[in-house]
Amino acid sequence: MLIIGIAGGTGSGKTTVVKKLLERLPGNEIVILPQDSYYRDSSHKPLEERLEINFDHPDSIEWELLVKHLKELKQGRSIEQPIYSYLTCTRAEETIPINPCSVVIVEGILILTSPEVRKLLDLKVFVDADADDRLIRVINRDIVERGRSVNKVMERYEKTVKPMHLQFIEPTKRFANIIVPQGGNNHIAIDILTKFILDFLKSKSKNNEI
Prior knowledge:
alpha/beta; Rossmann fold; 5-stranded parallel beta sheet; two-stranded antiparallel ribbon; 7 helices; globular
Protein backbone atom coordinates (compact mmCIF):
# COMPACT_ATOMS: atom_id res chain seq x y z
CA MET A 1 0.00 0.00 0.00
CA LEU A 2 1.14 3.52 -0.89
CA ILE A 3 0.04 6.24 1.56
CA ILE A 4 0.36 9.83 0.35
CA GLY A 5 -0.20 12.91 2.50
CA ILE A 6 -1.28 16.12 0.76
CA ALA A 7 -1.12 19.20 2.98
CA GLY A 8 -1.07 22.97 2.51
CA GLY A 9 -2.85 26.09 3.71
CA THR A 10 -6.60 26.66 3.62
CA GLY A 11 -7.57 27.51 0.03
CA SER A 12 -4.18 26.49 -1.39
CA GLY A 13 -5.70 24.11 -3.94
CA LYS A 14 -5.21 20.74 -2.23
CA THR A 15 -8.66 19.48 -3.16
CA THR A 16 -8.13 20.49 -6.80
CA VAL A 17 -4.84 18.58 -6.88
CA VAL A 18 -6.58 15.50 -5.47
CA LYS A 19 -9.45 15.79 -7.99
CA LYS A 20 -7.03 16.05 -10.91
CA LEU A 21 -5.12 13.00 -9.66
CA LEU A 22 -8.37 11.04 -9.39
CA GLU A 23 -9.24 11.97 -12.99
CA ARG A 24 -6.00 10.36 -14.18
CA LEU A 25 -5.88 7.28 -11.98
CA PRO A 26 -7.92 4.04 -11.87
CA GLY A 27 -10.73 4.67 -9.38
CA ASN A 28 -10.71 1.16 -7.96
CA GLU A 29 -7.07 1.51 -6.88
CA ILE A 30 -7.30 4.68 -4.82
CA VAL A 31 -9.17 5.99 -1.78
CA ILE A 32 -9.23 9.46 -0.18
CA LEU A 33 -9.21 10.08 3.57
CA PRO A 34 -10.04 13.77 4.21
CA GLN A 35 -8.58 15.21 7.39
CA ASP A 36 -11.86 17.14 7.80
CA SER A 37 -13.66 13.87 8.60
CA TYR A 38 -11.54 13.52 11.73
CA TYR A 39 -12.39 16.78 13.48
CA ARG A 40 -13.28 16.02 17.09
CA ASP A 41 -16.98 15.69 17.79
CA SER A 42 -18.30 18.75 19.63
CA SER A 43 -21.94 17.75 20.04
CA HIS A 44 -21.55 18.02 23.83
CA LYS A 45 -20.89 21.78 23.55
CA PRO A 46 -23.48 24.56 23.09
CA LEU A 47 -23.90 25.75 19.48
CA GLU A 48 -22.33 29.14 20.31
CA GLU A 49 -19.13 27.43 21.46
CA ARG A 50 -19.13 25.08 18.49
CA LEU A 51 -19.25 28.00 16.06
CA GLU A 52 -16.06 29.38 17.63
CA ILE A 53 -14.01 26.19 17.15
CA ASN A 54 -10.54 26.81 15.77
CA PHE A 55 -10.42 24.31 12.89
CA ASP A 56 -6.88 25.37 12.00
CA HIS A 57 -5.29 24.18 15.25
CA PRO A 58 -3.83 20.63 15.43
CA ASP A 59 -5.77 19.97 18.66
CA SER A 60 -9.03 20.09 16.68
CA ILE A 61 -8.17 16.76 14.99
CA GLU A 62 -8.67 13.33 16.55
CA TRP A 63 -5.23 12.12 15.45
CA GLU A 64 -5.53 8.88 17.42
CA LEU A 65 -8.46 7.76 15.28
CA LEU A 66 -6.85 8.82 12.00
CA VAL A 67 -3.62 6.97 12.85
CA LYS A 68 -5.61 3.92 13.92
CA HIS A 69 -7.55 3.93 10.64
CA LEU A 70 -4.41 4.29 8.52
CA LYS A 71 -2.79 1.38 10.32
CA GLU A 72 -5.91 -0.77 9.89
CA LEU A 73 -6.06 -0.04 6.16
CA LYS A 74 -2.37 -0.87 5.86
CA GLN A 75 -3.07 -4.21 7.56
CA GLY A 76 -5.82 -4.96 5.05
CA ARG A 77 -8.80 -4.17 7.28
CA SER A 78 -11.79 -1.99 6.42
CA ILE A 79 -12.61 1.12 8.46
CA GLU A 80 -15.63 3.32 9.18
CA GLN A 81 -14.71 6.88 8.20
CA PRO A 82 -16.51 9.57 10.26
CA ILE A 83 -18.69 12.22 8.64
CA TYR A 84 -18.26 15.77 9.98
CA SER A 85 -20.61 18.71 9.40
CA TYR A 86 -19.24 22.27 9.41
CA LEU A 87 -22.80 23.60 9.68
CA THR A 88 -23.45 21.95 13.07
CA CYS A 89 -19.78 21.31 14.04
CA THR A 90 -20.67 17.73 14.99
CA ARG A 91 -20.11 14.22 13.69
CA ALA A 92 -22.97 12.39 12.07
CA GLU A 93 -24.11 9.08 13.49
CA GLU A 94 -23.55 7.54 10.07
CA THR A 95 -20.08 6.60 8.81
CA ILE A 96 -18.58 5.78 5.41
CA PRO A 97 -17.20 2.25 5.00
CA ILE A 98 -13.73 2.36 3.44
CA ASN A 99 -12.03 -0.75 2.12
CA PRO A 100 -8.25 -1.16 1.80
CA CYS A 101 -6.86 0.09 -1.52
CA SER A 102 -3.51 0.10 -3.29
CA VAL A 103 -3.22 3.87 -2.80
CA VAL A 104 -4.52 5.96 0.11
CA ILE A 105 -4.40 9.77 -0.08
CA VAL A 106 -4.75 11.64 3.21
CA GLU A 107 -5.61 15.26 2.49
CA GLY A 108 -5.86 18.26 4.81
CA ILE A 109 -4.23 21.44 6.05
CA LEU A 110 -2.73 19.88 9.19
CA ILE A 111 -1.71 16.42 7.92
CA LEU A 112 2.03 17.07 8.20
CA THR A 113 1.81 18.51 11.73
CA SER A 114 1.38 15.04 13.25
CA PRO A 115 4.61 13.04 13.74
CA GLU A 116 2.56 9.81 14.00
CA VAL A 117 0.85 10.46 10.67
CA ARG A 118 4.12 11.50 8.99
CA LYS A 119 5.66 8.15 9.96
CA LEU A 120 2.91 6.36 8.05
CA LEU A 121 3.26 8.44 4.87
CA ASP A 122 5.30 7.09 1.96
CA LEU A 123 5.13 10.45 0.16
CA LYS A 124 4.54 13.89 1.69
CA VAL A 125 3.23 16.68 -0.55
CA PHE A 126 2.75 20.35 0.34
CA VAL A 127 0.52 22.46 -1.91
CA ASP A 128 1.65 26.08 -1.84
CA ALA A 129 -0.18 29.27 -2.83
CA ASP A 130 0.04 33.02 -2.26
CA ALA A 131 -1.82 34.28 0.81
CA ASP A 132 -4.13 36.57 -1.20
CA ASP A 133 -5.10 33.73 -3.57
CA ARG A 134 -5.89 31.51 -0.57
CA LEU A 135 -7.99 34.26 1.04
CA ILE A 136 -10.13 34.69 -2.10
CA ARG A 137 -10.79 30.93 -2.22
CA VAL A 138 -11.57 30.81 1.51
CA ILE A 139 -14.12 33.64 1.19
CA ASN A 140 -15.86 31.98 -1.77
CA ARG A 141 -15.88 28.53 -0.17
CA ASP A 142 -17.02 29.55 3.32
CA ILE A 143 -19.89 31.67 2.00
CA VAL A 144 -21.18 29.01 -0.43
CA GLU A 145 -20.41 25.76 1.43
CA ARG A 146 -20.44 26.77 5.10
CA GLY A 147 -23.10 29.46 5.20
CA ARG A 148 -20.87 32.21 6.63
CA SER A 149 -21.09 35.95 5.95
CA VAL A 150 -18.20 37.89 4.40
CA ASN A 151 -17.61 39.66 7.72
CA LYS A 152 -17.51 36.35 9.61
CA VAL A 153 -15.07 34.88 7.07
CA MET A 154 -12.75 37.90 7.29
CA GLU A 155 -12.92 37.93 11.09
CA ARG A 156 -12.08 34.23 11.23
CA TYR A 157 -9.25 34.70 8.72
CA GLU A 158 -7.59 37.42 10.82
CA LYS A 159 -8.27 35.73 14.16
CA THR A 160 -7.41 32.09 13.40
CA VAL A 161 -6.68 31.13 9.77
CA LYS A 162 -3.73 33.48 9.18
CA PRO A 163 -1.98 33.07 12.58
CA MET A 164 -2.53 29.28 12.62
CA HIS A 165 -1.15 29.02 9.09
CA LEU A 166 2.02 30.85 10.10
CA GLN A 167 2.40 28.94 13.37
CA PHE A 168 1.48 25.38 12.37
CA ILE A 169 0.95 24.85 8.64
CA GLU A 170 3.67 26.82 6.83
CA PRO A 171 6.47 25.27 8.97
CA THR A 172 5.43 21.74 7.87
CA LYS A 173 6.61 22.57 4.36
CA ARG A 174 10.05 21.37 5.48
CA PHE A 175 8.70 17.83 5.90
CA ALA A 176 7.45 17.63 2.29
CA ASN A 177 9.12 15.48 -0.35
CA ILE A 178 7.36 17.50 -3.06
CA ILE A 179 6.15 21.12 -2.96
CA VAL A 180 3.45 22.04 -5.49
CA PRO A 181 3.25 25.80 -6.14
CA GLN A 182 0.00 27.13 -7.71
CA GLY A 183 -2.03 24.10 -6.62
CA GLY A 184 -4.21 22.51 -9.28
CA ASN A 185 -2.85 24.85 -11.96
CA ASN A 186 0.59 23.22 -11.71
CA HIS A 187 0.13 20.61 -14.44
CA ILE A 188 3.76 19.48 -14.40
CA ALA A 189 3.64 18.69 -10.67
CA ILE A 190 0.39 16.79 -11.14
CA ASP A 191 1.99 14.86 -14.03
CA ILE A 192 4.91 13.92 -11.76
CA LEU A 193 2.60 12.77 -8.95
CA THR A 194 0.46 10.81 -11.42
CA LYS A 195 3.50 9.04 -12.85
CA PHE A 196 4.80 8.24 -9.36
CA ILE A 197 1.50 6.59 -8.42
CA LEU A 198 1.12 4.75 -11.74
CA ASP A 199 4.68 3.41 -11.45
CA PHE A 200 3.83 2.09 -8.00
CA LEU A 201 0.67 0.40 -9.29
CA LYS A 202 2.55 -1.20 -12.20
CA SER A 203 5.27 -2.46 -9.86
CA LYS A 204 2.63 -3.85 -7.48
CA SER A 205 0.86 -5.58 -10.36
CA LYS A 206 4.10 -7.20 -11.58
CA ASN A 207 4.94 -8.43 -8.07
CA ASN A 208 1.48 -9.98 -7.77
CA GLU A 209 2.01 -11.85 -11.05
CA ILE A 210 5.23 -13.45 -9.81
